[in-house]
Amino acid sequence: MPRSFVFPRPRPRGLLGRRFDGDEQLVLGSGAALSLLSLAVVPGVLLKVAAFVLVLAVSAGVVLLPYKGRTYLRWWEIRRSYRRLLGNGELLYRSRVPMAGRMLTGRPVPVEAPVGVPPRMEWFRARTAYGDVAVLLQPSEGLFTAVIEVEGQKNFGGLDEDDKEALVGAWETWLRQTSDTGGRISRLQWIARIVPVDPNAHARDAQARRDPKAPGWLHNSYEQLLERVAISAEDRRLFLVLGIRYSQELVVEALKYGSLFEGYGVVLGKEVESFIRTLGTAQLRWVRSLDEAALASFVHHCYAPDHWLDDVRGMDQATCWPAEMDGREDSVMISRGWETSRSWMHSTGWIKQFPIRPVALNFLAPLLLYTPGVILSVAVTMDLIPSDRAMQDAIADATNELGQADTKPGKITDPRERQEQRAATSTMEEIASGAAGVRLTGWVTVSAQDRDALEQSKGIVRGASAKSQLAVEWCDREHYRAFTNTLPLACGLLGS
């Protein structure tokens, strides 16, 4: 029987029960307390009743009534942060790289990153048997990150069911080993970068380079070869970001070497190298490790897709950021690279719900393979949870689901509640059977050079997401912050 996946339905995680989030419970509780206080303070029976009803209605409306696709409470913090940044001018970014200069050692002078990016990041190099890799220390996140490019060893779509099942089993084993072996890598971010290319470029180049003096049989042979070569219309890359938590134990081990950052490079280089050696367990092939120039080129390419991803000329920790970035508009973020004066528009969406009904192994295929002409980044960030802790969390979730079930005699049980109870119970069984425990979130960024093309691309992505049974919510008024979650920084998931 083909394997299928079911993701749990997103549920609030408040202090009391799972009906509302903590801030929603706080607003409702404060409204109830103020309404009771109004009964004691306000004079007159009619005024008491009016004040009581008004306070309760306002607090309930703020939490429950839909407002521009969300609720007023959901918009409150977004609007507050947006207005604060708009007032102090941080949403308009211009790089200071041309005026910053370089040190005597040739290293660039660090410059501020755009708003939304973790501040005060430190770049350093780690040496591995697979080449140098750039490691970023993010003090605000308490996280070290390194990036490698990978690809599958086999064509998943061309495998039969038994081979697919074996491949998924290998993937589960690899995740469980990574989380349970006591290694330092605790967060993974998968980034699928899809950029349209010209499918006829090779044919035009061959025509331009054709030698008219060459024999006719050679021309015919090359024409037949061109007809048989499959030319993809998209450049597809898969990057894997490794996240290592900052800890005192790591600092103590790094201090054994000449300097702290030299020690970080040695210790983290060993972790990255050990991780790369295990990729074969998951049927993955290492392509390259991204050093400072390659990582800077990748970051700059995300802001300005007309900068080719593999062009590392002049790329470093200073020039990786865009020349300009404008996050003042509600529905788009605008950025410009160093090569041209053309601006790019970006919209980022949050995958607020993964499939809650059984889906096949390739449920993401409509989004990753069938979005023609769309410049797209799909990022999935996951925290690896040890099996013991994952089982404890699963038992707590199942207990909460069963405890909140409304089983009054004579009342029909909501079928959605029964599905949630079965899903919570099956999660415990799967972890007990050897499945790895993860916490994950997903983000999608669409880029285009004008508003019409951006809206068209968003429509294509919206349709592909629906086919993949994903619910995507566009992050209006916070695109500057959401865009960072599709950069190779392993962001977008709160620390556990």
Along the chain, the helix and strand elements come as HHEEHEHEEEHEHHEHHEHEEEHEHHEHEH
- For the termini, the CA-CA separation is 35 Å
> Rounded to an integer, what's the Rg over CA atoms?
26 Å
Number of helices: 15
Which outline best applies?
A: globular
Percent helix among the residues?
A: 40-55%
Tell me about the largest β-sheet: 13 strands, antiparallel
Low-confidence stretches: none
Q: Average pLDDT across residues? A: 85
Number of strands: 15
Helix/strand/pairing class, anyone? alpha+beta
Strand content: 15-25%
Structure description:
- By secondary structure, the chain is an alpha+beta fold.
- It is 40% helix and 21% strand.
- The protein is built from 15 helices and 15 strands.
- The chain has helices spanning 22-41, 45-64, 72-88, 97-100, 161-180, 201-208, 216-228, 248-254, 260-277, 292-303, 365-369, 387-403, 415-432, 451-467, 479-482, and strands spanning 66-67, 70-71, 92-94, 122-126, 133-138, 143-152, 185-196, 234-245, 284-289, 324-326, 333-336, 343-353, 375-385, 437-448, 471-474.
- The strands form 2 sheets. Strands 3, 4, 5, 6, 7, 8, 9, 10, 11, 12, 13, 14 and 15 form a 13-stranded antiparallel sheet that branches. A two-stranded antiparallel sheet has the order 1-2.
- Strand 1 (66-67) and strand 2 (70-71) form a beta hairpin.
- Helix 12 (387-403) packs antiparallel against helix 13 (415-432).
- The protein is globular, with a radius of gyration of 26 Å.
- The two termini are 35 Å apart.
- The model has no long low-confidence stretch (mean pLDDT 85).
